[in-house]
Structures are given as structure tokens and as C-alpha cells.
Amino acid sequence: MPISPPQVSELVEKLVEDQGFDLEDVTVTRRDGADELTIVVDRDGGSDLDVLADLSNRISAVLDAVPDLSDDPYVLEVTSRGVDRPLTHPRHWRRNVGRRVEVRLTDAEDGSRRTVTGRIGRLTEADVEIVANHKGRIAVEAVALADVVKAVVQVDFSQPSVRELELCGLDPDEIARRRSRDGKQV
């Protein structure tokens, strides 16, 4: 009997939350006679593979205990959000402070769209600050969350300046951690 994403969510949400995660998404696809369940989770501070493997084992035990599912083959993948998923909740913005983001906005006045790229800064209930470095000139722009059409964290190999990270609201220890590689300051 095929299972639906809402059924999976209902079965695993409490377990996921009890382990300190937010349940972000559940997808179920049918392939080669088996359901492929992908469960996307996230939490403050991120996660490592060992923690996700443990969570996967716990989720598998919950699913295996459901009589209607116990005889049906399925493949389970428990994964983190990854950088390609849009920032849709305030917690996504908070968890990515200091990271580079591309934000597509609707201009409330004329309905046109524009894009802002920079680092995620301070966040309020209504706004997020985007810290942009334009060839050494640093600017901070407050963006209304209500005007965000889509926001995605960018893969970023650049080294942000200390000033950029300070304007993002990061403390000195976090700035030092982000600016060091293999324990050496860069």
C-alpha cells in the first residue's frame, strides 16, 4: 500500500522534534516497485552524518512498526536542507546568518522584481538585513520578508571581511571561526 507524504509526516514528526530537529519536507516517489521516502530535517547548528544516520534508524523503526507498511518495500533517505532549498521560514534565515544569499524581491510600489545579493544579517519579525560588499564598499539594506519572492543560499568560496561579518551580527568568536581554515587565520 503506497504511503503519502502527510501520512509519513504524521508518523515521524514528533520523533523528529524530540531529537531536536524541524521536519522541513517529506516526499514519496514510486520507483522500481518500492516507495522512496525522502525526509528533510534541519536544526540550529546543523548536523553531521552520524546524527542523521541515527535519526534515520529511529524513523525506520517507527515506519516498520506500522502494520500497513511493514510488508511493503521502501527506501528511506533522511537528509538536511542543503543550500539549494529556498529560505521560507524565519528560522531558515536565522540559521544562515553570515552566509551569502540571493534574494528576489517584488517592489511593493510598482510590482517589478529586483534581486539583492549579499550576506544575511540581523533579522526581525518583519525584515532581514542584507550586507553587500560592492568592491570594498559595504552597504546594508533592510529587506521586508513580505517582499521576498525567493531566497536561496549561494555556494560561496569568497572570504568575507571582518566588517561584513560584524554587520551580519556575528560575535568575535564566530567571526574568527569562519575566517580560519585548518586552524590558521587567513
Automatic annotation (TrEMBL):
Chief location category: cytoplasm
Domain Ribosome maturation factor RimP C-terminal: 87-157
UniProt-annotated location(s): Cytoplasm
Alphabetical list of InterPro entries matching this protein: Ribosome_maturation_RimP, RimP_C, RimP_C_sf, RimP_N, RimP_N_sf
Pfam families in UniProt: DUF150_C, RimP_N
CDD domains, sorted: YlxS_C
Record keywords: Cytoplasm, Ribosome biogenesis
All copies of domain Ribosome maturation factor RimP N-terminal, residue ranges: 11-84
Reported function: Required for maturation of 30S ribosomal subunits.
Homology family: Belongs to the RimP family.
Protein name as it appears in the record: Ribosome maturation factor RimP
Organism per entry: Gordonia paraffinivorans NBRC 108238
